[in-house]
């Protein structure tokens, strides 16, 4: 018993020294406030601007409002779970969770009257305030897609299933800098570990370091084992998936966490290296290139330092607000900029069928809910559309690169 207490004390002391070292470095760098020196943050441009009535789009839903009510219900689950006073920014305007609930319930109740397109447009113009994303450098929004894949796997390792899908590591912990200074409120938490030799806090291992640790399974329990390394990589990209086991069982894998390292797109790397033409880039093109160049797989995959960990669960897939996302009704955005759970309207392009060339995709407009986020979805000019889990979803998510517009709708105050 005495030895166990001594080991626990030693671990706590190691963690304490590591955290102390981190804080010391921040102080020396001047980030926690040094005398009269203050870091002046440039004013942030509002990602949403209010749209004048004369500039409102035609609110026509390409899919005839199918499954929209179910997606709204999921956002209502979220809003009814948070404090009624929690606030959400729409440009210069702020609405609380209670108002967000009223906004969605009012919209859904009107949908249940089965309105014509003309009546729906009149209803929105009379009842809702509409905001538009300022977009990226070209003032438009880049839309991509993601889906829920299914891959063969096993609960035990073997010659046919050598690639582990890891749970959250035991030695990974989060550092919330806001505990040290109010200046860090709202900042991203750091994912870290304590180096056993130096007793200092270090960033968590990169993808390359994780793959090169033969004993990493002692830090992070494998949830399942996959047949293909490329499958595991794309499972990480999608953030969730299904694993088809030999006995016919389907295991549902959900996002559990990340190592905190920078996400870099391997598709961009292949384009920059002139390995795949930009106009032919897709998830399918990446898979084909990796399959035909196994000797260069480390080179390409290790350019992305980010690594995702998983947990097994039921239902889903779930978005960042922990509600089930709905195919072609849920989007992922930078939730630091846009209101979580909010009702949105997008204008983009979607294929009419599997195999349709990207340049022939017809324009589409849809009501969607902002229910997810992603490591590559940053800034006001990016949206990721959840496409589902079928073959159409696979094709669409793999090829979708379309320009368009993003709007948010909220019930006008005093309505």
List the keywords:
single chain; 415 residues; alpha+beta; Barwin-like endoglucanases; Ribosomal Protein L25, Chain P; 2 domains; 6-stranded mixed barrel; 6-stranded mixed β-sheet; 10 helices; 19 strands; disordered N terminus
Description:
- With 415 residues, this protein is of the alpha+beta class.
- It has 2 domains: 193 residues, Barwin-like endoglucanases; 128 residues, Beta Barrel (Ribosomal Protein L25, Chain P), CATH 2.40.240.
- The chain has 10 helices and 19 strands.
- A hairpin with a 5-residue loop joins β12 and β13.
- The longest helix has 27 residues.
- It starts with a helix and ends with a strand.
- The relative contact order is 0.18.
- The N terminus is likely disordered.
- It comes from Desulfobacter latus.
- One of its GO terms (cellular component) is outer membrane.
- One of its GO terms (biological process) is peptidoglycan catabolic process.
- Keywords: Cell wall biogenesis/degradation, Lyase.
- InterPro entries: 3D_dom (IPR010611), MltA (IPR026044), MltA_B (IPR005300), RlpA-like_sf (IPR036908).
